[in-house]
Structures are given as C-alpha cells and as structure tokens.
Amino acid sequence: MMNEWLECTLKSLNLTDSMKRPDGFTRLGYSEEELEAMAVFKQVSEELGLKVRRDEAGNLFARWEGVSENVVMTGSHLDTVENGGGYDGAAGVLCSLGAVKKLKEHGFVPQASIEVVCFASEESARFGVSTIGSKSVSGILEPAVQEVKDRHGITVKQAVESVGLKWENMLNAERSKDEILSFIELHIEQGTQIEDHGAKFGVVRGVACPIRLKVKAGGMAGHTGTTPMGKRRDALAALAPLISFVSNTAEALSAASSKPLVATVSTLDVKPNVMNVIPGYAGAGIDIRSVDDQLKRKMADEIIAFCRGLEEEFNVTMSIETLVDNSSILLDGKLMARVRDAGEQLGYQAFEMDSGAGHDVMNMAAKWPSALVFIPCEKGISHHPDEFTSLEDLSIGVDILAEVLKQEAGD
C-alpha cells in the first residue's frame, strides 16, 4: 500500500502521469510551475489531516499538531533545474509526507508538533542564488538578493511578487530559535557513494560549501597569421595550463587528506573569440569544495601561486577574484547518530559521508540541530531527465524518517 501511495503521490507532485519524460521537469523558483506543484503538496497534506500555511517567503508548512508548541520539522523542495529530474527535492517532500502517513496509520500521538515543509526556490537555476526559502526561515536572507535578475531580466523581487507575495514581508518568514527543536531533510544522493560502499542509506556529516574564484588573464589581441609566436601575449594560452593544474592538484590534495576535496574549472570566457584573432582576454571560473575549510583554502592558495607563475611565463596580467568563500556546514552529531541508529535498527546499512552539493539543511543548521539523510539514486544521475530512485529506496526513506520523527516528537 505504501509503495502504491508513493508512486501515485510522486507523479502528482511532479504534475505528470509518467516519470519518464525525455525533457524532464522544469519548475523554476517562484514560477507558476513551482506554484502548481506546491498546490498539490497542500492538497496531499490536507488529505493526511495536516493544517497547511504559506509563509511570507512562499514556503509551505503542513502541521500535525502536537501537545506542545515546539516543532520537529522535516521536508525539502519541489522546484527543479531546467529539464531536471523529478526526484531532487521531491523525494524529500514525498518521504516526509509518507513518514507522517505511516505514523498516523500506526496510531502515533506526537508530543511536539510535526511540520512537513516545502521550501520555495531551493535551486539556483533561475537566479544563480540558491535556497531562498530556507534562508528566509533561518533569518539569513540578504536584502540585496531582491535585485538579482534571471536571464529574462526579471528580478527576485518581481518574481516573488508575481506569485502573490510581498518582498518587504520576506524577512518576516524567520522562525524563532526556541520554536523548532530539530530539522531533518531527506534527499537523493546525487552520487554513487552509498551504492559503492554496499549501504542502503547515507548519513551526512557536513555540507561542503564552496570557494569560487574568477581568474582573468589579460594579454594582447593580434592577427593569428602575422604575429610571430615569440612575440605573442596570448591570454588563452596562458590560462590553459591552469585547467589541468586544478584537476591534478585537487586530486593530490584529496588523496593526502582524510576529507575529500574536489575542484573544477567550470566556466571559460574568451575574447574576442574570433577565429583569426589571438585571444586578448581569457577568464576561468573555478569551484572548490570540501567540508575541510583549511583544505579548500590551501587549494585556493595553490591556484593563486600557480597563476603568478603563468603571469610571468606568458607575459600577461592575471587577476584572481574570490566570488564566494563560504565556510562549510557541519551537521548535528547527536541527530546524525539518531538517524544512523534508527536506520540500522530497521535493518538498513548506513554509510557516513559528506555532501558536495548544497541543500536547504545547511541554512537550517545555522540555527537549529539538523540532519541530512541520503537515499540512493540510480548511477548517481541527477539534474537530468534520467534521474531515478526506486520505490524500494523511497520506502526505506519513509521508514527511517518515521522512526526519527517518532523519537524526536515523542515523549
């Protein structure tokens, strides 16, 4: 019965009659599509006997009233990247509702109130700014975000107000520290570590927030046919060695550390980008991630030093701008142990790991004890139409969440 409910509700939340869609799902933050999916969340929650409210940031909270006013919270998001999968975020919302359904069917009476949250605009796909809804709840949303525009020139403020909210009220979405006892998020892994280690679920120790650098090489444009090789100031030639340096250095530092590190040259910008003109400018965006902040900064320092050598070798100027330098988030050890123990007592093998991707939990953890549980996704594929998680793994997620909620919200 639970599997039938999970399959049916998953499709409903994704506004589809089939999870196999060649173009995937597109529900950008503060769009009509996200709003439609959230309306289904409201309907399903009310069918489970929960009372639903929308806050000033557009987040939805489905509340199972307990004896006390304190809240144990669980949930995730329903927005997606463009042409993404139907499990990223949705699995967490689905399993949280499923856990409430299971507890109700077993006659559980919560002491603390249980709230299933559907956060608004978690993905950065539309604005380049992620987790807007959970930042509002945690009280860490920066007012300047309102001016950020999507590719169509629509600002965050305009998008927020297009779905019936008022930007000036967004900061009122913050919840008090004393009200919420704990938060637990379930998410698909978006990798293969659980499977690789023969486990059934992952317990996340920390979220690896990035350092992001922008490296700009300035040379001299010139005719490709008439400028001798020895007299060139080719910005792209100067920048090119950095790509393999970043990859090789990250691999070496990660292998020598107890905590993994990844680093990627993920964007390139070349000007004038014309076939018969030597590049006079080349820019690279670099993303560095680890839960070990010192290791991230060591990688950044290695990049800066290497660029200084390239500058001299190729007779170009190189500037390095730090776009983002966020400290990584370590999740609550006691709650993490409760998740691990709950899953293992149910017969599911756990694997302790770190998350290389950001999630709403990292904002909630800034204020409340928080945990993140991963369930496998096939071949680690995510942000893609082929993203897939089995009903068996979704059911395992429901079992684990139900047991943790029972302990957190019980006597």
Describe the structure.
The chain folds into two domains: 2-208 and 328-409, Zn peptidases (Aminopeptidase, 3-Layer(aba) Sandwich), CATH 3.40.630; 210-325, Alpha-Beta Plaits (2-Layer Sandwich), CATH 3.30.70. The mean pLDDT is 97. By secondary structure, it is of the alpha/beta class. Strands 1, 2, 3, 4, 5, 6, 13, 14 and 15 form a nine-stranded mixed sheet that branches. A four-stranded antiparallel sheet has the order 9-11-7-12, with helices on one face. Strand 1 and strand 2 form a beta hairpin. It is built from eleven helices and 15 strands. The radius of gyration is 23 Å and the shape is elongated. The chain has helices at 2-13, 32-47, 90-105, 132-138, 156-162, 193-196, 235-255, 293-314, 333-345, 361-364, 391-409, and strands at residues 51-54, 60-64, 71-77, 113-119, 180-188, 201-207, 210-218, 222-223, 262-271, 277-278, 281-289, 317-325, 329-330, 350-355, 370-375.
